[in-house]
TrEMBL record:
It is found in: Cell membrane. Belongs to the TatA/E family. Residues 54-90 have a biased composition (Low complexity). This is Sec-independent protein translocase protein TatA. It comes from Rhodoglobus vestalii.
Length: 90
């Protein structure tokens, strides 16, 4: 249906318009940013596919044994410290 939607001339005109809008100095930065975004997207898609694979069940069981079980709070509070107040400075 849209087989001839973007012919060679259309692509050339599109590139000229992009060049006029963004300017020549910004094009390498835009291309670099686009490449990094595509790389991140591909790695995320690969990660999602790996999570859905049958091997993920064995990986989950090994992750559970590596956990330390700490909650992040350590130490104890002293009841004498919580009741004492420091006098205000003049």
């Amino acid at each position: 249906m849209f087989g001839n939607a973007l012919s060679g001339w259309h692509l050339i005109i599109l590139l000229v318009v992009i060049l006029l809008l963004f300017g020549a100095p910004k094009l390498p930065g835009l291309a670099r940013s686009l490449g990094q975004s595509m790389r991140i997207f591909r790695s995320e898609v690969k990660t999602m596919k790996d999570e859905n694979s049958p091997d993920s069940a064995t990986n989950d069981s090994t992750d559970a044994t590596d956990a330390t079980g700490t909650t992040g709070t350590t130490g104890s509070t002293d009841s004498a410290d919580s009741n004492s107040t420091t006098p205000p400075k003049p």
